[in-house]
């Protein structure tokens, strides 16, 4: 905002003045930042009344929520990168912004520097989006990529991600899928014009993904990714939002997304298939998205208007995961003897789960049986697995993973 002030002024149509910076600890050295702008009283800053735009990159629910609401009440628009807050209370924040006649922009909340929120809200506003499928967490993609390319186990890959700064000291939000679930809620709400919160998103992390799962995926010509998947039902009566590991074929564009990069695949009726790719986290990519929103909001201020707000006119319900239809990869440890495959196949048939392919390897009385199904509901697959566990010939259900992107 200071080094590129002239460029920003030219793009906006007026200069932007940095009025204050609220921080937790004022004593830190911040090169290039004027000390007189630093304050620890964030509430007083947002309530000044002479502020046009507040940028919130605090994170978390509180005090961020109250600070944003206070900014609205005092006439300021808000640019935020707070995915957790938007996924939980986005509808309330949008309503408060609309009541105050100000903007709420949050491109940086999902996929870092990748332009995604604005294309969904504006560029595709005249189209019907049916599916959003993406890799929206760089930490987990780095871990799975290392497991795939180097043969490392989960713990080894996580250790490397931590050493390189991709994973936090406490990586729970990333590896258990909470971060991706918040982003999926935001994307689903915008794409399908309905209210979706993080509580509506089915979530599985990647901590249970094993080297054997990675090897099985390779044998099928697939790779394992932690995906955020948002879909409109075929009848248009409901939506689903879910985050979980899945096998996708190497031919799918998302399969080639490496390291800590993000990519989101959007399917719309008129536009067809679109892919958005780039760095999904980090200081500079986040700053790029924040400044892009700042320019847009300032332009709106100068024009005496506001940008697109919350569009939730469809009010579609979120379908529970047990009703979601997908394909499955089921790995079983079984006795290596005649008739076992027939027993297993009959259990799948009993619950209406059609088998696509079967692969079996046996040695010294033990065997590994890998079954890939056609599309079935989560409830049907769950009932099938419960019955398989009761068979004397099935020693263990080693892993279950969904298959996407066919």
From TrEMBL:
Alphabetical keyword list: Amino-acid biosynthesis, Methionine biosynthesis, NADP, Oxidoreductase, Sodium, Threonine biosynthesis
Associated pathway: Amino-acid biosynthesis; L-methionine biosynthesis via de novo pathway; L-homoserine from L-aspartate: step 3/3; Amino-acid biosynthesis; L-threonine biosynthesis; L-threonine from L-aspartate: step 3/5
Positions of NADPH binding: 83
Active site: 183
Short name of any one Pfam family annotated for the protein: ACT
Cofactors (names): a metal cation
Recorded catalytic activity of this chain's protein: L-homoserine + NAD(+) = L-aspartate 4-semialdehyde + NADH + H(+); L-homoserine + NADP(+) = L-aspartate 4-semialdehyde + NADPH + H(+)
Annotated binding of L-homoserine, by residue: 168
E.C. designation(s): 1.1.1.3
GO MF entry, a single one: homoserine dehydrogenase activity
Biological process, per Gene Ontology: methionine biosynthetic process; threonine biosynthetic process
Protein purpose: Catalyzes the conversion of L-aspartate-beta-semialdehyde (L-Asa) to L-homoserine (L-Hse), the third step in the biosynthesis of threonine and methionine from aspartate.
Family recorded in the similarity comment: Belongs to the homoserine dehydrogenase family.
Protein name: Homoserine dehydrogenase
Source organism: Kitasatospora kifunensis (Streptomyces kifunensis)
């Amino acid at each position: 905002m200071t080094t590129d002030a002239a460029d920003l002024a030219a793009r906006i149509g007026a200069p932007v003045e940095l009025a204050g910076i609220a921080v937790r600890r004022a004593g830190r050295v911040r090169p290039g930042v004027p000390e007189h702008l630093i304050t620890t009283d964030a509430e007083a800053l947002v309530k000044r009344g002479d502020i046009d735009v507040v940028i919130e990159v605090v994170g978390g629910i509180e005090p961020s929520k109250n600070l944003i609401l206070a900014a609205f009440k005092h006439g300021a628009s808000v640019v935020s990168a707070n995915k957790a807050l938007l996924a939980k209370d986005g509808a309330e924040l949008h309503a408060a912004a609309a009541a105050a006649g100000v903007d709420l922009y949050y491109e940086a909340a999902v996929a870092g520097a990748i332009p995604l929120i604005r294309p969904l809200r504006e560029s595709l506003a005249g189209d019907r989006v049916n599916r959003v499928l993406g890799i929206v967490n760089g930490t987990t993609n780095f871990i799975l990529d290392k497991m795939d390319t180097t043969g490392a186990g989960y713990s080894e890959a996580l250790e490397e991600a931590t050493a390189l700064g991709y994973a936090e000291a406490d990586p729970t939000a990333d590896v258990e899928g909470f971060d991706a679930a918040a982003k999926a809620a935001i994307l689903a709400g915008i794409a399908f014009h309905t209210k979706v919160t993080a509580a509506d998103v089915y979530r599985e992390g990647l901590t249970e993904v094993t080297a054997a799962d990675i090897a099985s995926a390779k044998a099928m010509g697939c790779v394992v990714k932690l995906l955020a998947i948002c879909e409109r039902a075929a009848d248009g009566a409901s939506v689903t939002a879910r985050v979980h590991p899945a096998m996708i074929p190497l031919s799918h564009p998302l399969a080639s997304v490496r390291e800590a990069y993000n990519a989101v695949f959007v399917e719309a009726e008129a536009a067809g298939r679109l892919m958005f790719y780039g760095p999904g986290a980090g200081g500079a990519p986040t700053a790029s998205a924040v400044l892009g929103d700042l320019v847009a909001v300032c332009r709106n201020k100068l024009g005496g208007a506001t940008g697109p707000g919350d569009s939730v006119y469809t009010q579609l319900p979120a379908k529970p995961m047990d009703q979601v239809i997908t394909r499955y990869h089921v790995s079983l440890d079984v006795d290596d003897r005649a008739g076992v495959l027939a027993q297993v196949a009959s259990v799948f048939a009993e619950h209406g789960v059609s088998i696509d392919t079967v692969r079996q390897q046996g040695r010294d009385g033990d065997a590994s049986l890998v079954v890939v199904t056609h599309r079935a509901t989560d409830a049907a697959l769950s009932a099938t697995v419960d019955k398989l566990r009761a068979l004397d010939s099935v020693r263990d259900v080693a892993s279950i993973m969904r298959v996407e992107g066919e």
